[in-house]
Amino acid sequence: MLTPPELLVGTPGRYAREVFHQRHPTLIDRVAAAHPYTTAQRAALGALLDESLTGEIRPLPGDAPDLADWAAWDRGQVGRPWADAPFLWAESYFYRRILDAVDYFRPGPWHGVDPFRPMKDAELADPSLDSDFGWVASLGRERDEADLATVVRAAVFGNRADISFRLQEPAGDAPTDELLVDDTAWLRAALSEPGPVCLIADNGGREVMADLVLANWLLDTGLATRVTLHVKPAPYYVSDATASDVDAACARLGRPLDARVAVRTHSFWCAPLAFGDLPADLRADLAGHRLVVAKGDLNYRRLVGDRDWDPTTPVRAAATDLGVPVVALRTCKSEVVVGLDAATVARLDAAEPRWRVSGRHGMAQAR
Ligand SMILES: O=P(O)(O)OC[C@@]1(O)O[C@H](CO)[C@@H](O)[C@@H]1O
Predict the structure, then answer these.
(1) Of 113, 137, 158, which residue is a domain's last?
(2) Domain region containing 87
(3) Separation of 195 CA from ligand 1 center, angstroms?
(4) Where is the Damage-control phosphatase ARMT1-like metal-binding domain (predicted)?
(5) What is the pLDDT of residues 81-112, one digit of tens each?
């Protein structure tokens, strides 16, 4: 089978171009308004947006602490037009450059100040979270299949709560109840002998709250002996969870982090690369688990490759073999999807032109 080409930023009519040309201007406005930034910081944000819409990719400053990482991850992109860059590469670099524009890594008053913090805090302050998570109190400690289905679906549809995504897509579109692929039974079978579970988190707030509910349930029922929760080392894609976002989510849920949950991070989680490029130490870490749960749309893109896949491509032909069973829990928020049958694709294409990107549809897809 021929591997399809990578999705590129500038291809007319494709989603990646919408993200850069429609979502990013709104995003930059929101970031500029989020904190009392200096004139220089606001100018740097504006210059980054202009550069990304029409220009060539400029390097990080010479004092960037992660210069060596980005030299290794460059893949020949710096210096080329943004429009020609792979979507996956360019988005990660765009978020890294936002951190540069707001002096996130520079010693001084803005060092370590999360540019997305006010947006994240607003989400956690939403009173509807109380009723939306009310069902958690009724979860039992028995290995009940209905409870498993509930916690898995909550983790899937929690992935709609992605602030960068909601900058572009209308919030009103109700999710479907349907999972386009539902490998919940496979997930259960993967834990027929309990073992350690690795959960690669995506967004903080509502999504990581649902992930913690899933983790707690797996621990409470004894299906998981321990859980490793991988989060981002720095602010990324607006709402991606960092360690402090996990603390905030635990507080919002009113349940402290279980002693059997270890929160970990790795520089690779903010790298512009797919899972095929996982560094050896992280690959070994993941392989030490009985099951890996990869949350969210970006991790899905990284798992199967951010390519122009025919949606009927078998999962195993596309997804990277991590040497351990993997289940991806995501809502469809980008053009990348594999493992569907032709009838489902035809039905969705006819009914909803934006089904791949609208976030209405979810999947729990195993490799
Ligand atoms: O990984 P997540 O948070 O589920 O989604 C990331 C996302 O918002 O970013 C990409 C475009 O910016 C899309 O693939 C997707 O909609």
Answers:
(1) 113
(2) 15-113
(3) 30
(4) 20-344
(5) 999 999 999 999 999 999 999 999 999 999 99
